[in-house]
Design goal:
Largest interface: A-B, 9 and 12 residues
Number of strands of chain A: 2
Shape of chain B: elongated
Strand content of chain A: under 5%
Low-confidence stretches of chain A: 1-15
Number of strands of chain B: 0
Helix content of chain A: over 70%
Number of helices of chain A: 28
Oligomer: heterodimer
Helix content of chain B: over 70%
Mean pLDDT of chain B: 89
Strand order of the largest sheet of chain A: 1-2
Low-confidence stretches of chain B: none
Order of helices and strands of chain B: HHHH
Structural class of chain A: mainly alpha
Structural class of chain B: mainly alpha
Radius of gyration of chain A: 30 Å
Largest sheet of chain A: 2 strands, antiparallel
Radius of gyration of chain B: 18 Å
């Protein structure tokens, strides 16, 4: 793989392929010898520390020399760093399994110390963070490789890779941190990188606005995370996950916490979930994610599909001990997740921008993950997070390959028939479409099915009839998912090409550095689900066994299905969801696939217009929040600032200064004897004072 | 010469105070710059007189050195001051200090 991207790079690289190779070899040797020079038992900890630090070094180095580095060197460092992280992650993940350990910690330094409170920068690798770093560094590495070809001709090439590495660092800190503040640092760090990368082409005003929108909407959620952290600290006096879990009784005990009393756990759960709705694009804060597609497509794949937006799911899974104690918050999470899954799926039905379809699909799939964690199926949520990272990254990178090949065209009405121009992109996209639609034996079949099954089987103590509704919403959304993905597929790759003839001649398959990540990711989209086989297949569920220790509180969630009828129900559910997915695909084929000469007709139907315009949610937010806020700001500016404050400053201060000056100017006579007189009087008074009161 | 031995340090100090006050009043009230100067000399000499008086009372000769310093500085000051008044006279045709009020503007 490295050969191919170097070949591609060599065409415009300033340095030869070989010099880059030797630099890479040298760095690898330094890392290896550093590892050899410490005691053997410390090596895993050293490597654990290096997993987030490798991209940090990459970002630091490329960031400092951003204007002076040859492109090829930036690529070697920036792409090498996450690959090294990935190698370490794989090694440590299986080493942990082999040693039979539940976790290892590495403490870098003491971060905060105030009175009895002290907090270390400690990275913890356990089964959950192990899965996360594998996904983040694995998918991240592939997307870095893909970016080599995608961003090669951009003027800000080095800046792009600096941001990407910085993102990797923040994301790995987020998942590896053993305490909430450390996770929060990563949480804000990925938010910053998201902002920087959405507005990467900031010369275009729309891109810069999209970046700002993402940043501001995320801040609303972050307030929730901060308040949740404050409540946890007030109740337990600690912010380390392990210690919070050990002190759960203090959160649940109404006498130790004052503000919310017995509802503290629910309050914390809801506040943290508010942060998750921002970061993971759920109702009501999902609006930033579709706009975030303004960024380069590898960024959409890495940050806004595979990794960053799943941080909320990770946080809830990490806090599973807290959520199982509060069925009310869990119910809210499940309802919001299910509604988001359906709502975003319907918007995806009639979008014509290839990336917008995928963006709403991402929002919808994230809704599934929250549905899973909301019904207590934390493992299923993380499982879907992983499989989704594979196929959605593949879909986004495939769309990037299409956009690249179509010379920046994103409207699927102007595409069609691309299968013959770009066969590799076509096949990988096709596989991922099947995977996301949920047909066996591809990835989402296992993960989405597990979620739907748990949504159905879960016993909800707050609203007893809710599981039926959750399952129904999830199943309908699954049908919509199959429909809009295959609509996208048929309109993009099948039928006759609707692009202008001049453009058709220029459509080309992407370079190998872009197609190889697609092939690998589509392979993962096929096999990725096999580690989490359902119980009815009578094969070991590796994913569950792996996460069993970390997500052990999952066992406290009750099932309403009797154990003896469980298998029968699970078969029914599975066959139903496969049937729904097939129906969705069939409808898409009838409407868009059957006729090769599909023509777009403007549609006046109210329902169509409503969905096509995304339910006017953005417009509603604009009139409900943005415009009042802007008007209020204008009021503050014109009235309070320009009139009251500036008025007070200019008029009052100038009047005071003028009048005081008028009063004092009479003492300056210009006559030296007057000055001397005041001097003599002053000295006399001083002498009198010293004589009378001091001496 | 018995009256001479009856002069104590207090007498010298009173004389010095009288001289100093005369000088101060002159500096503040007289308008002629040269007279103002002489009054400044009077104040300096009043100070010298206290130095000498205390030197005699305490039997310490080192105060005489200070007096010589004061005289030297007064001479230098007189030289500079007179040069200023000469320049002022050339400019304004007057040495009256109340007519030199341009610092006000």
């Amino acid at each position: 793989m490295s050969d191919t991207h170097h070949e591609h790079e060599n065409g415009h690289g300033e340095l030869s392929y070989w010099s880059a190779f030797w630099v890479g070899l040298f760095v690898a040797a330094v890392v290896l010898f550093t590892g050899l020079s410490v005691e053997p038992e410390k090596i895993p900890r050293l490597w654990l520390a290096l997993i987030p630090l490798m991209p940090a070094f990459g970002a630091l180095f490329n960031g400092i020399f951003v204007r002076h580095m040859p492109k090829l060197w930036t690529v070697v460092i920036a792409v090498g760093a996450p690959i090294v992280s990935f190698v370490f992650s794989v090694f440590l993940f299986f080493w942990l399994k082999k040693e039979g350990m539940e976790y290892i910690d590495v403490t870098l330094y003491e971060w905060l110390s105030a009175g009895a409170f002290s907090l270390d920068v400690t990275f913890r690798l356990d089964a959950l963070s192990g899965v996360m770093i594998l996904v983040v560094s694995g998918v991240g590495s592939l997307i870095h490789v893909y970016s080599i070809g995608y961003i090669a001709h951009d003027a800000s090439h080095n800046r792009f890779f600096t941001y990407l590495n910085l993102f990797m660092f923040a994301m790995l800190v987020l998942v590896l941190g053993n305490s909430m503040p450390l996770t929060f640092i990563g949480w804000e760090g990925v938010g910053l990188c998201s902002y920087l990368l959405i507005g990467f082409w900031f010369e275009d005003h729309a891109n810069a606005s999209a970046g700002k929108k993402a940043f501001i909407v995320n801040r609303i959620g972050d307030v929730g995370v901060l308040l949740g952290m404050f409540l946890i600290f007030q109740a337990t006096g600690t912010l380390v996950y392990e210690e919070i879990a050990a002190n759960m009784d203090k959160i649940l005990n109404p006498t130790t916490v004052t503000v919310f009393g017995a509802g503290t756990a629910t309050a914390i759960g809801l506040l943290l979930f508010l942060g998750c709705t921002g970061k993971s694009a759920q109702i009501p804060l999902y609006v930033w994610l579709p706009d975030a597609m303004a960024g380069p497509t590898p960024v959409s794949a890495l940050i806004h599909a595979a990794t960053m937006v799943t941080a909320g799911v990770y946080l809830i899974a990490r806090m599973n001990f807290l959520y199982v104690a509060t069925p009310e918050a869990m119910t809210v999470v499940a309802i919001v997740g299910a509604l988001t899954a359906l709502f975003a799926a319907t918007i995806g039905l009639f979008q014509y921008d290839i990336k917008k379809v995928l963006a709403y699909s991402t929002v919808s799939q994230l809704g599934y993950m929250f549905l899973a964690v909301g019904v207590g199926a934390f493992t299923a949520g993380i499982f879907h997070l992983m499989t989704h990272a594979f196929f959605k990254a593949c879909l986004f990178l495939g769309s990037g390959s299409v956009i690249h090949g179509m010379h920046e065209e994103q409207d699927i009405r102007k595409m069609g028939g691309l299968a013959k121009f770009m066969p590799k992109t076509h096949w990988t996209f096709f596989i991922s479409c099947i995977a996301i639609a949920g047909l066996p034996p591809l990835a989402a079949f296992f993960s989405k099915d597990e979620i739907l099954w748990h949504a159905f089987a879960n016993k909800n103590v707050v609203v007893p009839w809710l599981p039926n509704v959750l399952w129904l919403i999830g199943a309908i959304a699954a049908g919509f998912t199959a429909f809009y993905m295959f609509r996208l597929y048929f309109l993009t790759f099948r039928g006759e090409c609707r692009a202008p003839a001049a453009l058709q001649k220029k459509i080309h398959e992407s370079p190998p550095s872009m197609t190889w990540p697609l092939i690998i990711l589509s392979g993962l989209a096929i096999v990725g689900g096999w580690v989490g086989m359902p119980a009815i297949f009578h094969v070991p569920n590796l994913f569950h066994e792996n996460l069993h220790h970390v997500l052990s509180y999952e066992g406290l969630i009750l099932s309403r299905i009797a154990p003896e009828s469980e298998h029968a129900w699970e078969w029914i559910m599975m066959l139903t969801s496969v049937a729904i997915a097939c129906a969705g695909i069939a409808v898409a084929w009838v409407i868009y696939g059957k006729k090769p000469d599909w023509k777009w007709q403007p549609n006046d139907n109210f329902v169509y217009q409503m969905i096509h315009n995304k339910y006017w949610v953005d417009e509603g937010y604009f009139y409900a929040f943005v415009r009042p806020l802007v008007n209020f700001s204008v009021f503050l500016w014109r009235m309070v600032d320009a009139w009251i404050i500036d008025g007070a400053l200019t008029w009052v201060t100038s009047a005071v200064a003028y009048n005081v000056g008028q009063g004092i100017r009479i003492v300056q006579t210009g006559n030296v004897q007057t000055y001397l007189l005041s001097f003599v009087i002053g000295v006399s008074l001083l002498v009198f004072y010293l004589w009378r009161f001091v001496g | 010469m018995s009256w001479l031995t009856q002069i104590t340090t207090n007498h010298y100090l009173v004389l010095a105070a009288v001289l100093f006050m005369l000088g101060t009043v002159g500096v503040l009230l007289r308008k002629n710059g040269l007279i103002v100067f002489m009054c400044i000399e009077l104040m300096l000499n009043a100070a010298n007189l206290t130095f000498i008086a205390f030197a005699r009372q305490l039997g310490q000769e080192s105060a005489h050195v200070v007096v010589f310093f004061v005289m030297a500085v007064a001479a230098a000051e007189a030289a500079v001051g007179l040069a200023i008044f000469v320049a002022m006279f050339r400019q304004k045709k007057t040495v009256y200090v109340d007519e030199a009020t341009t610092l006000k503007h």
